[in-house]
User: Which sequence fits this backbone?
């Protein structure tokens, strides 16, 4: 009984099971619905590209011309700054001390110049007049004595020697009067212009030294070059800021009014674009968030493709033309650095005409 009925039944059941499994395996799998519905092009004929949101000024990466310890970072990411606002500062204690020394030297030079320009002092003029009056009185006395000796009737009573001494005394008195007059004139004329010029030069030199230190202090204060928004802050108080270009900038700024979208267009589709073509950008992750774009310019240099979308049909061994479009952020929840799917309206693709056959060369065999 077992061999007659059971074994054939088991074989038949196994065959049916195998057939059922084969039929089930042959059915195509039901595709899973996408997590996010992809964006659909709003134009009948279009060119699609991957866009990257960037500031209208592009990213302005900040470093410092002079290395040092960061002493202040008064801005925060997302903060709007005006041109000239302080972004961060570097330690300046040594320069502050040097500035105090230079300012003291400038003060000394200015006071020396002021003292020279203030000459003569009012107290110095009366003594000079008195010395001139004394010299004139002495001259008058010597002249009176000489006149008395010269008017003696009996020439034998006056020796020639004594008369010569009196005359020499008058000449000396006249020289002292001339000296006193010159000193008084020199005093009333004030400072010599050459001495004033020398001290003025010293003052200018001291001012230049002060300005030089101030410039060095100002170089350690990094300011915003334009009205912009702080996009990233990568430095903290107490950290050492290295000078020169850095792989990770100390701070990034950019103007977000308006925003720009840099769209990579495959070189195989670049010929289909025209300047001013309308375009629409959809935010990745939510195709309900979109923005109408305004054409700005083409980057005339075609570059190797760097931004990849991950599509299986995407070509990576190609070059791209970058088209720049702008839009106002408004209340859109978009940020600098996000990717967008961009569709640019273009003319329909015409059927390619086959190339004409080359004419045979003369003498070729037919």
Assistant:
């Amino acid at each position: 009984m077992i061999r007659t009925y059971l074994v054939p039944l088991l074989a038949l059941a196994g065959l049916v099971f195998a057939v059922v499994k084969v039929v089930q395996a042959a059915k195509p799998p039901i595709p899973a619905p996408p997590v996010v519905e992809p964006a659909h092009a709003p134009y009948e004929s279009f060119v699609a590209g991957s866009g990257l949101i960037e500031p209208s000024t592009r990213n302005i990466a900040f470093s410092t011309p002079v290395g040092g310890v960061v002493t202040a970072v008064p801005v925060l990411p997302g903060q709007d700054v005006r041109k000239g606002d302080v972004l961060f500062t570097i330690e300046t204690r040594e320069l502050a001390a040097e500035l105090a020394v230079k300012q003291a030297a400038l003060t000394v030079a200015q006071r020396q110049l002021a003292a020279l320009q203030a000459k003569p002092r009012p107290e110095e003029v009366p003594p000079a007049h008195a010395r001139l009056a004394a010299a004139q009185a002495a001259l008058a006395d010597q002249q009176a004595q000489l006149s008395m000796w010269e008017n003696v009737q009996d020439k034998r009573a006056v020796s020639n020697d004594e008369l010569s001494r009196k005359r020499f005394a008058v000449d000396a008195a006249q020289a002292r009067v001339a000296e006193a007059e010159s000193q008084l004139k020199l005093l009333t004329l004030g400072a010599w212009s050459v001495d004033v010029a020398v001290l003025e030069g010293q003052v200018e030199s001291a001012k230049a030294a002060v300005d030089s230190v101030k410039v060095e202090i100002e170089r350690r204060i990094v300011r915003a070059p334009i009205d912009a928004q702080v996009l990233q802050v990568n430095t903290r108080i107490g950290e050492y800021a290295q000078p020169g270009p850095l792989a990770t900038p100390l701070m990034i700024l950019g103007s977000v009014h308006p925003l720009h979208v840099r769209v990579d267009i495959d070189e195989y589709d670049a010929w289909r674009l025209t300047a001013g073509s309308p375009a629409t950008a959809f935010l990745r992750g939510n195709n309900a968030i979109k923005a109408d774009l305004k054409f700005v310019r083409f980057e005339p240099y075609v570059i190797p493709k760097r931004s990849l979308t991950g599509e299986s049909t995407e070509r990576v061994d190609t070059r791209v033309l970058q088209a720049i479009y702008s839009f106002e952020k408004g209340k859109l929840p978009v940020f600098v650095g996000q990717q967008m799917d961009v569709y640019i309206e273009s003319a329909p693709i015409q059927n390619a005409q086959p190339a004409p056959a080359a004419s045979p060369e003369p003498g070729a065999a037919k």
Observations:
- The chain is about 35% helix and 25% strand.
- The CA atoms of residues 305 and 317 lie 7 Å apart.
